[in-house]
Amino acid sequence: MTNAPTTNKKLISWVEEMARLCQPKNIHWCDGSKEEYNSLCELMLKTGTFTKLNEKKRPNCYLARSHPSDVARVEERTFICSANQDDAGPNNHWKEPAEMHRTLNGLFQGCMAGRTMYVLPFSMGPLESPIRKIGIEITDSPYVVANMQIMTRAGKAVLDALGDGDFIPCMHSVGAPLRPGQADVPWPCEPDVSRKYIVHFPEEPSIWSYGSGYGGNALLGKKCLALRIASVVARREGWLAEHMLILRLTSPEGKTHFIAAAFPSACGKTNLAMMLPSLPGWKVNCVGDDIAWICIGADGRMYAVNPETGFFGVAPGTSVKSNPNAIHTIERNTIFTNVALTPDMDVWWEDMGVPAPEKAIDWQGNEWTPGCGRKAAHPNARFTAPASQCPVIDPDWQKPEGVPLSAILFGGRRSSTIPLVNEALSWEHGVFLGSGCGSETTAAALGKVGALRRDPFAMLPFCGYNMADYFAYWLSMPQRTDRSKLPRIYFVNWFRKSSDDRWLWPGYGENSRVLKWICERVEGKAKAVSTPIGNLPTPDALDLTGLNIPSTDLQELLAVDIEGWKNEVEDIAASYKKFNNRVPATLLEQLDILRKNLNDAK
Ligand code: SAT
Ligand code: MN
User: Fold this and answer.
1) CB count in 10 Å sphere of residue 501
2) Is this prediction's pTM over 0.85?
3) Which helix (H) or strand (E) holds 575?
4) Distance 257 CA to ligand 1 centre (A)
5) Do residues 461 and 75 lie in contact, with contact meaning Cβ atoms separated by under 8 Å?
6) pLDDT tens sequence across 402-420
7) C-alpha to C-alpha distance for 150 and 148, rounded to whole angstroms
């Protein structure tokens, strides 16, 4: 078995040990080449995992349909196994590490029988970046290898860069061994959710994932390594691993600012990251759409790196209106998962902005017609596409040292209370705003507010340690650099509704108006009014040229709803309670200041 293309002793002996445990039919060391990608696609066409799409309309594109049970991340089966339960915190599921290792060893015993074990070296971050991390994913899924080739820097160059150095072991199996003669299925997985495991050992560090082939559970470089493990490593090494997009905004005069933004899942991160501004002459470039690794540079400013090389975006809702640049990004070399297949072998999904086909094959492989009452695409259907294909990919997107941040945004889907944009008064106030991030599950019934889930920093499912310690770590940044060099912090909300359930703000490209105000604030040029909750734009400070928005709507978007905020404060206070007195005093002080400001307000 050891025709290993490496002399790395730890790597060779780990691969040997895992092969003994999983008993695969054979072992394939991935070189990351085009030829390898093509032959994996050929293989998946044979096994039925992939369907080839229309070569004229979608060159080099494939469709995969998952098992109906394997369509999303499984948070209830995701574990942080630190030695101490308190270090994982109430925000994570925890099991004692030795006990979890015993469970996993049982599950992985013989789990790759009849399958090929792929050994895939990958790097999160450009190979020349000082904070890049090398992982080796062992997997029995060719679908995972193909997706990882798009999402990460993978293959021979990584192995060469690794040399005899250290790496993060990432163990993955779909959990579906084949008996001799047993036929394979298009999407092998462990359908019993209680037997799926997405496990992180932050102190080793290592990752073990069993039973799922879905992106966030199986592409281990992404949420598992680049967020859960990286957040722990980053704290030790003095940087930040965040669930943030990174964009560059350029003014008509050529002035440039980089902005990072954290929104919970399904709040439009990919849309904002590559937005087409409605403001004439303004330009957005995309550096990344999901993850930012941020460190303090030699000049004391914060620099952000996108550790990924692709987009794993939600397809439904992606249209020429919501995200024209994404539509162009996925015209070729893209893997689609759980979208609908049209009769001319193209893809379709709900809110794609084009009429539904007369008939289609839905995401479960069944006949579908527009009136049939079922969705054609799964709501979490995805595309996997190379970032380099984005028409507005930033020229500096692969810079090893990253791009300097002028501002950090937090946000969520909030139909009431939270104004369009709010500027934090200090770093500490900004961290407080980030800790209060939340999003509504669905649009509310008339006049009623949807169910709100608090998702601090949009990191609730991704923070690999106690979230209260994470707050404290964020608060320590002014001790690590000159406070004036830190990015300014803003809270934005594109999702406000009127009392009669209309959107108050048009969103999409019009959000450039808010980004413009933010950049002008950073430059000390734009006007703001001081309020009990922070600095809000004066109505004339927002550039609204060419936008037809009723002035009453604008007033509502930029007003402070004192009663709503009083509820907000108590809801945030209640969310802190989960952390059993571990929440930093600075945040409790911020809470008290806000309470007092609101009580003093008329
Ligand atoms: O499902 S993934 O974790 O891959 C993507 C996301 O939820 O942001
Ligand atoms: Mn995400």
Assistant:
1) 13
2) yes
3) helix 562-577
4) 27
5) yes
6) 999 999 999 999 999 999 9
7) 5
